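note to self — DONT lose this again. spent like an hour looking for the file last time. sequence + predicted structure for the chain T wanted, 424 res
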Amino acid sequence: MEKKRTVAFHTLGCKLNFSETSTLSRLLESEGFEKRDFDDQADVYVINTCSVTDNADKECRQLVRRIQRKTPESFVVITGCYAQLKPSEIASIPGVDLVLGAAEKFNIARHIGELAKGDAARICSCDIEEVSGFNASFSQNDRTRTFLKVQDGCDYNCSFCTIPMARGKSRSDNVANVVGHAEKLAADGVKEIVLTGVNLGDFGKGPDGENKYEETFFDLVKALDQVPGIERYRISSIEPNLLTNEIIEYVANSDKFMPHFHIPLQSGSNEILKLMRRRYKRELYAERVALIKTLMPHCAIGVDVIVGFPGETDQQFTETFDFLHSLDVSYLHVFTYSERDNTKALEIKPVVPVSVRNERNKTLRNLSYMKMQYFTNQFTGQTRKVLFEAFEKNGMMEGYTDNYIRISTPYRKEWANEVVNWEL
Protein backbone atom coordinates (compact mmCIF):
# COMPACT_ATOMS: atom_id res chain seq x y z
CA MET A 1 0.00 0.00 0.00
CA GLU A 2 1.30 3.45 -0.91
CA LYS A 3 2.53 5.42 2.10
CA LYS A 4 0.47 8.52 2.91
CA ARG A 5 2.22 11.87 2.45
CA THR A 6 2.39 13.94 5.62
CA VAL A 7 1.89 17.68 6.13
CA ALA A 8 2.46 20.05 9.06
CA PHE A 9 1.23 23.63 9.52
CA HIS A 10 2.40 26.70 11.40
CA THR A 11 0.29 29.86 11.65
CA LEU A 12 1.54 33.37 12.34
CA GLY A 13 -0.88 36.19 13.12
CA CYS A 14 -4.60 36.61 13.55
CA LYS A 15 -7.67 34.44 14.13
CA LEU A 16 -8.49 34.79 10.44
CA ASN A 17 -5.19 33.09 9.59
CA PHE A 18 -5.97 30.28 12.04
CA SER A 19 -9.35 29.69 10.40
CA GLU A 20 -7.72 29.58 6.95
CA THR A 21 -4.91 27.25 8.08
CA SER A 22 -7.52 24.86 9.45
CA THR A 23 -9.33 24.90 6.10
CA LEU A 24 -6.07 24.32 4.16
CA SER A 25 -5.40 21.38 6.45
CA ARG A 26 -8.80 19.84 5.70
CA LEU A 27 -8.26 20.41 1.96
CA LEU A 28 -4.98 18.47 2.02
CA GLU A 29 -6.37 15.75 4.29
CA SER A 30 -9.19 15.24 1.76
CA GLU A 31 -6.45 14.73 -0.85
CA GLY A 32 -4.94 11.91 1.21
CA PHE A 33 -2.38 13.82 3.31
CA GLU A 34 -1.88 12.89 6.94
CA LYS A 35 -1.57 15.83 9.34
CA ARG A 36 1.39 16.03 11.71
CA ASP A 37 2.48 18.45 14.43
CA PHE A 38 4.88 21.12 13.18
CA ASP A 39 7.64 19.81 15.46
CA ASP A 40 7.31 16.32 13.94
CA GLN A 41 8.83 15.13 10.69
CA ALA A 42 6.65 15.75 7.64
CA ASP A 43 6.91 15.60 3.85
CA VAL A 44 5.43 19.10 3.46
CA TYR A 45 5.52 22.09 5.81
CA VAL A 46 3.08 24.95 5.27
CA ILE A 47 3.71 28.30 6.97
CA ASN A 48 0.77 30.75 6.91
CA THR A 49 2.29 34.20 7.42
CA CYS A 50 1.21 37.60 8.72
CA SER A 51 2.15 41.13 7.70
CA VAL A 52 0.89 43.18 10.63
CA THR A 53 4.20 43.30 12.54
CA ASP A 54 7.76 43.62 11.32
CA ASN A 55 8.64 40.12 12.56
CA ALA A 56 7.13 38.33 9.53
CA ASP A 57 10.43 38.13 7.65
CA LYS A 58 12.43 37.10 10.72
CA GLU A 59 9.97 34.48 11.97
CA CYS A 60 9.53 33.01 8.52
CA ARG A 61 13.29 32.63 7.97
CA GLN A 62 13.77 31.07 11.40
CA LEU A 63 11.04 28.50 10.77
CA VAL A 64 12.45 27.61 7.33
CA ARG A 65 15.93 27.20 8.82
CA ARG A 66 14.52 24.89 11.48
CA ILE A 67 12.90 22.72 8.81
CA GLN A 68 16.09 22.70 6.73
CA ARG A 69 18.13 21.46 9.68
CA LYS A 70 15.59 18.81 10.62
CA THR A 71 14.37 17.47 7.27
CA PRO A 72 16.19 19.04 4.28
CA GLU A 73 14.25 16.84 1.83
CA SER A 74 10.86 18.19 2.90
CA PHE A 75 8.93 20.71 0.82
CA VAL A 76 8.36 24.16 2.32
CA VAL A 77 5.28 26.15 1.28
CA ILE A 78 4.75 29.78 2.35
CA THR A 79 1.36 31.48 2.09
CA GLY A 80 -0.56 34.27 3.83
CA CYS A 81 -0.26 38.06 3.83
CA TYR A 82 3.53 38.24 3.79
CA ALA A 83 3.59 35.84 0.82
CA GLN A 84 1.23 38.14 -1.12
CA LEU A 85 3.18 41.30 -0.27
CA LYS A 86 6.75 40.09 -0.83
CA PRO A 87 6.73 36.85 -2.85
CA SER A 88 10.19 37.33 -4.42
CA GLU A 89 11.76 38.08 -1.05
CA ILE A 90 10.31 34.86 0.38
CA ALA A 91 11.24 32.80 -2.68
CA SER A 92 14.88 33.84 -2.12
CA ILE A 93 14.95 32.22 1.36
CA PRO A 94 17.03 29.02 1.04
CA GLY A 95 14.77 25.98 1.46
CA VAL A 96 11.50 27.57 0.27
CA ASP A 97 9.90 25.57 -2.56
CA LEU A 98 6.56 27.30 -3.13
CA VAL A 99 5.07 30.74 -2.46
CA LEU A 100 1.29 31.03 -2.73
CA GLY A 101 -0.38 34.43 -2.94
CA ALA A 102 -3.92 35.35 -1.85
CA ALA A 103 -5.62 34.01 -5.00
CA GLU A 104 -3.82 30.66 -5.00
CA LYS A 105 -3.61 29.48 -1.38
CA PHE A 106 -6.84 27.47 -1.61
CA ASN A 107 -5.43 25.68 -4.69
CA ILE A 108 -2.62 24.39 -2.47
CA ALA A 109 -3.17 20.67 -3.22
CA ARG A 110 -2.71 21.14 -6.98
CA HIS A 111 0.41 23.27 -6.55
CA ILE A 112 2.04 20.82 -4.12
CA GLY A 113 1.36 18.00 -6.59
CA GLU A 114 3.45 19.82 -9.19
CA LEU A 115 6.52 20.32 -6.96
CA ALA A 116 9.87 18.62 -7.47
CA LYS A 117 12.71 18.98 -4.94
CA GLY A 118 15.72 20.78 -6.34
CA ASP A 119 13.73 23.08 -8.64
CA ALA A 120 13.87 26.83 -8.04
CA ALA A 121 11.21 28.19 -5.71
CA ARG A 122 7.89 28.65 -7.53
CA ILE A 123 5.81 31.80 -7.04
CA CYS A 124 2.08 31.47 -7.69
CA SER A 125 0.67 34.92 -7.16
CA CYS A 126 -1.06 37.81 -8.92
CA ASP A 127 -1.75 41.51 -8.40
CA ILE A 128 -4.02 41.99 -5.42
CA GLU A 129 -6.51 43.88 -7.65
CA GLU A 130 -7.20 40.58 -9.41
CA VAL A 131 -8.18 38.80 -6.17
CA SER A 132 -11.96 38.74 -6.07
CA GLY A 133 -13.12 35.36 -4.78
CA PHE A 134 -14.31 34.57 -1.27
CA ASN A 135 -13.27 31.30 0.40
CA ALA A 136 -15.19 30.38 3.53
CA SER A 137 -12.95 29.03 6.31
CA PHE A 138 -13.30 27.81 9.85
CA SER A 139 -10.98 26.43 12.49
CA GLN A 140 -11.64 23.22 14.37
CA ASN A 141 -8.82 22.64 16.83
CA ASP A 142 -11.30 21.02 19.16
CA ARG A 143 -15.08 20.92 19.07
CA THR A 144 -15.63 23.62 21.67
CA ARG A 145 -14.97 26.84 19.78
CA THR A 146 -14.44 27.62 16.13
CA PHE A 147 -13.35 30.77 14.28
CA LEU A 148 -15.65 31.21 11.27
CA LYS A 149 -14.49 33.54 8.52
CA VAL A 150 -17.41 35.46 7.04
CA GLN A 151 -15.61 38.43 5.46
CA ASP A 152 -12.21 39.12 3.85
CA GLY A 153 -10.26 42.12 2.55
CA CYS A 154 -10.67 45.81 3.35
CA ASP A 155 -11.63 48.97 1.47
CA TYR A 156 -10.22 51.23 4.19
CA ASN A 157 -6.78 52.68 3.65
CA CYS A 158 -5.40 53.36 7.11
CA SER A 159 -1.98 54.94 6.70
CA PHE A 160 -0.16 52.29 8.80
CA CYS A 161 -1.74 49.16 7.31
CA THR A 162 -0.75 46.72 4.54
CA ILE A 163 -3.80 44.44 4.83
CA PRO A 164 -5.68 45.90 1.80
CA MET A 165 -2.51 45.22 -0.24
CA ALA A 166 -2.26 41.70 1.17
CA ARG A 167 -5.93 40.66 1.10
CA GLY A 168 -7.59 42.85 -1.50
CA LYS A 169 -11.02 44.48 -1.61
CA SER A 170 -13.68 43.92 1.03
CA ARG A 171 -15.85 40.93 0.15
CA SER A 172 -17.89 38.45 2.10
CA ASP A 173 -20.00 35.34 2.13
CA ASN A 174 -23.79 35.68 2.10
CA VAL A 175 -26.09 35.15 5.08
CA ALA A 176 -27.53 31.86 3.77
CA ASN A 177 -24.07 30.30 3.32
CA VAL A 178 -22.88 31.41 6.77
CA VAL A 179 -26.03 30.01 8.38
CA GLY A 180 -25.34 26.73 6.54
CA HIS A 181 -21.80 26.61 7.95
CA ALA A 182 -23.13 27.33 11.45
CA GLU A 183 -25.67 24.50 11.13
CA LYS A 184 -22.93 22.08 10.05
CA LEU A 185 -20.70 23.15 12.94
CA ALA A 186 -23.60 22.70 15.36
CA ALA A 187 -24.11 19.16 14.02
CA ASP A 188 -20.39 18.51 14.65
CA GLY A 189 -20.83 19.47 18.31
CA VAL A 190 -19.36 23.00 18.23
CA LYS A 191 -20.79 25.14 21.05
CA GLU A 192 -19.25 28.54 20.29
CA ILE A 193 -18.58 30.37 17.03
CA VAL A 194 -16.31 33.42 16.83
CA LEU A 195 -17.15 35.48 13.73
CA THR A 196 -13.97 36.68 12.04
CA GLY A 197 -12.98 38.87 9.12
CA VAL A 198 -10.60 41.68 8.21
CA ASN A 199 -13.33 44.35 8.46
CA LEU A 200 -16.25 42.39 9.89
CA GLY A 201 -18.74 45.25 10.07
CA ASP A 202 -18.38 45.72 6.30
CA PHE A 203 -20.09 42.34 5.74
CA GLY A 204 -22.47 42.23 2.77
CA LYS A 205 -20.25 42.82 -0.25
CA GLY A 206 -20.19 39.96 -2.75
CA PRO A 207 -17.07 38.13 -4.01
CA ASP A 208 -16.47 40.90 -6.55
CA GLY A 209 -16.62 43.59 -3.84
CA GLU A 210 -20.03 44.89 -4.94
CA ASN A 211 -22.98 45.38 -2.57
CA LYS A 212 -25.06 42.89 -4.51
CA TYR A 213 -26.27 40.86 -1.54
CA GLU A 214 -28.15 43.79 0.02
CA GLU A 215 -27.34 42.21 3.38
CA THR A 216 -25.64 43.75 6.37
CA PHE A 217 -23.70 42.47 9.34
CA PHE A 218 -26.79 43.14 11.45
CA ASP A 219 -28.79 40.82 9.14
CA LEU A 220 -26.16 38.14 9.70
CA VAL A 221 -26.30 38.53 13.48
CA LYS A 222 -30.09 38.15 13.50
CA ALA A 223 -30.01 35.07 11.24
CA LEU A 224 -27.29 33.29 13.23
CA ASP A 225 -29.18 33.90 16.46
CA GLN A 226 -31.85 31.49 15.16
CA VAL A 227 -29.49 28.55 14.43
CA PRO A 228 -30.28 25.68 16.84
CA GLY A 229 -27.38 23.95 18.58
CA ILE A 230 -24.93 26.86 18.70
CA GLU A 231 -24.99 28.18 22.26
CA ARG A 232 -22.59 31.10 21.92
CA TYR A 233 -21.40 33.64 19.37
CA ARG A 234 -18.66 36.22 19.72
CA ILE A 235 -17.89 39.12 17.37
CA SER A 236 -14.10 39.01 17.04
CA SER A 237 -13.41 42.66 16.18
CA ILE A 238 -15.54 45.44 14.73
CA GLU A 239 -14.74 49.05 13.80
CA PRO A 240 -16.44 51.65 16.05
CA ASN A 241 -18.00 53.41 13.05
CA LEU A 242 -19.56 50.11 11.90
CA LEU A 243 -20.75 48.98 15.34
CA THR A 244 -24.26 50.39 15.15
CA ASN A 245 -26.65 51.05 18.03
CA GLU A 246 -28.97 48.35 16.66
CA ILE A 247 -26.19 45.72 16.83
CA ILE A 248 -25.36 46.71 20.43
CA GLU A 249 -29.03 46.66 21.43
CA TYR A 250 -29.57 43.27 19.77
CA VAL A 251 -26.57 41.70 21.51
CA ALA A 252 -27.82 43.11 24.83
CA ASN A 253 -31.09 41.19 24.38
CA SER A 254 -29.67 38.00 22.85
CA ASP A 255 -29.07 34.78 24.80
CA LYS A 256 -26.54 33.58 22.23
CA PHE A 257 -24.42 36.64 21.40
CA MET A 258 -22.03 37.02 24.30
CA PRO A 259 -21.61 40.31 26.21
CA HIS A 260 -18.15 40.84 24.73
CA PHE A 261 -16.95 43.31 22.08
CA HIS A 262 -13.50 43.96 20.70
CA ILE A 263 -13.37 47.47 19.24
CA PRO A 264 -10.17 48.89 17.68
CA LEU A 265 -9.32 52.40 18.87
CA GLN A 266 -5.63 52.76 17.79
CA SER A 267 -5.23 56.21 19.38
CA GLY A 268 -7.01 58.41 21.90
CA SER A 269 -5.81 61.55 20.10
CA ASN A 270 -8.01 62.93 17.31
CA GLU A 271 -4.94 64.43 15.62
CA ILE A 272 -3.26 61.02 15.46
CA LEU A 273 -6.50 59.32 14.36
CA LYS A 274 -6.59 61.77 11.44
CA LEU A 275 -2.97 60.98 10.52
CA MET A 276 -3.84 57.27 10.73
CA ARG A 277 -6.79 57.86 8.35
CA ARG A 278 -9.21 56.28 10.79
CA ARG A 279 -12.90 56.90 10.09
CA TYR A 280 -14.06 58.15 13.48
CA LYS A 281 -13.08 60.44 16.34
CA ARG A 282 -12.55 59.53 19.98
CA GLU A 283 -15.93 61.04 20.86
CA LEU A 284 -17.73 58.39 18.77
CA TYR A 285 -15.67 55.67 20.44
CA ALA A 286 -16.62 56.95 23.90
CA GLU A 287 -20.31 56.97 22.86
CA ARG A 288 -20.13 53.31 21.77
CA VAL A 289 -18.50 52.23 25.05
CA ALA A 290 -21.05 54.23 27.08
CA LEU A 291 -24.03 52.65 25.27
CA ILE A 292 -22.63 49.12 25.69
CA LYS A 293 -22.04 49.66 29.40
CA THR A 294 -25.47 51.24 29.91
CA LEU A 295 -27.21 48.22 28.33
CA MET A 296 -24.72 45.58 29.55
CA PRO A 297 -22.74 46.73 32.63
CA HIS A 298 -21.19 43.23 32.77
CA CYS A 299 -19.93 43.36 29.15
CA ALA A 300 -16.22 42.86 28.39
CA ILE A 301 -14.72 45.38 25.96
CA GLY A 302 -11.31 44.84 24.40
CA VAL A 303 -9.37 47.62 22.69
CA ASP A 304 -6.64 47.65 20.02
CA VAL A 305 -4.21 50.56 20.38
CA ILE A 306 -0.99 51.49 18.53
CA VAL A 307 1.82 53.33 20.30
CA GLY A 308 4.67 55.27 18.71
CA PHE A 309 2.89 56.20 15.49
CA PRO A 310 4.89 58.82 13.53
CA GLY A 311 4.27 62.28 14.91
CA GLU A 312 2.89 61.01 18.23
CA THR A 313 4.14 63.49 20.85
CA ASP A 314 4.44 62.83 24.58
CA GLN A 315 1.33 64.97 25.04
CA GLN A 316 -0.67 62.95 22.48
CA PHE A 317 0.40 59.68 24.10
CA THR A 318 -0.69 61.06 27.47
CA GLU A 319 -4.00 61.98 25.85
CA THR A 320 -4.38 58.33 24.72
CA PHE A 321 -3.44 57.03 28.17
CA ASP A 322 -5.87 59.35 29.95
CA PHE A 323 -8.67 58.54 27.48
CA LEU A 324 -8.20 54.78 27.94
CA HIS A 325 -7.93 55.22 31.71
CA SER A 326 -11.29 57.04 31.71
CA LEU A 327 -13.10 54.46 29.57
CA ASP A 328 -14.92 51.52 31.14
CA VAL A 329 -13.04 48.95 29.03
CA SER A 330 -11.69 45.57 30.16
CA TYR A 331 -8.35 44.95 28.44
CA LEU A 332 -6.02 46.33 25.76
CA HIS A 333 -4.16 44.74 22.87
CA VAL A 334 -1.15 47.04 22.55
CA PHE A 335 0.81 47.17 19.29
CA THR A 336 4.12 48.97 18.89
CA TYR A 337 4.09 50.84 15.57
CA SER A 338 6.41 49.28 13.00
CA GLU A 339 7.26 50.67 9.58
CA ARG A 340 5.56 48.83 6.70
CA ASP A 341 6.66 49.24 3.08
CA ASN A 342 4.36 51.18 0.73
CA THR A 343 2.28 52.77 3.51
CA LYS A 344 1.50 56.49 3.81
CA ALA A 345 2.71 56.54 7.42
CA LEU A 346 6.31 56.41 6.12
CA GLU A 347 5.86 60.00 4.91
CA ILE A 348 4.84 61.30 8.35
CA LYS A 349 7.49 62.95 10.50
CA PRO A 350 8.97 63.03 13.06
CA VAL A 351 9.62 59.33 13.61
CA VAL A 352 9.23 58.23 17.23
CA PRO A 353 12.43 56.53 18.53
CA VAL A 354 12.02 52.77 19.03
CA SER A 355 13.03 53.06 22.70
CA VAL A 356 10.18 55.55 23.27
CA ARG A 357 7.74 53.29 21.42
CA ASN A 358 8.71 50.36 23.66
CA GLU A 359 8.34 52.45 26.82
CA ARG A 360 4.86 53.56 25.77
CA ASN A 361 3.92 49.96 25.02
CA LYS A 362 4.99 48.94 28.53
CA THR A 363 2.94 51.76 30.07
CA LEU A 364 -0.24 50.70 28.28
CA ARG A 365 0.31 47.00 29.00
CA ASN A 366 0.46 47.89 32.70
CA LEU A 367 -2.79 49.82 32.30
CA SER A 368 -4.34 46.80 30.55
CA TYR A 369 -3.36 44.54 33.44
CA MET A 370 -4.99 46.90 35.94
CA LYS A 371 -8.12 47.22 33.78
CA MET A 372 -8.51 43.44 33.57
CA GLN A 373 -7.98 43.02 37.31
CA TYR A 374 -10.59 45.68 38.07
CA PHE A 375 -13.07 44.18 35.57
CA THR A 376 -12.63 40.63 36.93
CA ASN A 377 -12.90 41.68 40.58
CA GLN A 378 -16.34 43.22 39.95
CA PHE A 379 -17.77 39.72 39.54
CA THR A 380 -16.29 38.06 42.64
CA GLY A 381 -18.98 35.95 44.29
CA GLN A 382 -21.19 36.00 41.18
CA THR A 383 -22.16 32.87 39.24
CA ARG A 384 -21.52 33.06 35.50
CA LYS A 385 -21.68 30.50 32.72
CA VAL A 386 -18.32 29.05 31.62
CA LEU A 387 -17.77 27.01 28.45
CA PHE A 388 -14.88 24.65 29.21
CA GLU A 389 -12.60 23.47 26.43
CA ALA A 390 -11.82 19.79 25.89
CA PHE A 391 -8.07 20.44 25.84
CA GLU A 392 -6.12 19.19 28.87
CA LYS A 393 -2.72 20.60 29.83
CA ASN A 394 -0.82 19.55 32.95
CA GLY A 395 -4.02 18.18 34.45
CA MET A 396 -5.85 21.49 34.00
CA MET A 397 -8.60 22.74 31.71
CA GLU A 398 -9.62 26.25 30.71
CA GLY A 399 -12.80 28.02 29.75
CA TYR A 400 -14.29 31.49 29.41
CA THR A 401 -17.27 33.09 31.08
CA ASP A 402 -19.88 34.68 28.85
CA ASN A 403 -18.11 38.00 29.45
CA TYR A 404 -14.65 36.66 28.61
CA ILE A 405 -13.07 36.03 32.01
CA ARG A 406 -10.68 33.11 31.72
CA ILE A 407 -11.18 30.29 34.22
CA SER A 408 -8.63 27.54 34.93
CA THR A 409 -9.49 24.45 36.98
CA PRO A 410 -8.38 20.82 37.42
CA TYR A 411 -9.47 18.75 34.41
CA ARG A 412 -12.86 17.01 34.58
CA LYS A 413 -13.84 15.02 31.51
CA GLU A 414 -17.58 15.59 32.04
CA TRP A 415 -17.06 19.36 31.79
CA ALA A 416 -15.28 19.26 28.42
CA ASN A 417 -17.28 21.19 25.80
CA GLU A 418 -20.00 21.91 28.34
CA VAL A 419 -21.40 25.16 29.74
CA VAL A 420 -21.04 25.08 33.54
CA ASN A 421 -22.39 27.49 36.17
CA TRP A 422 -19.30 28.84 37.93
CA GLU A 423 -18.96 30.96 41.04
CA LEU A 424 -16.21 33.52 40.56
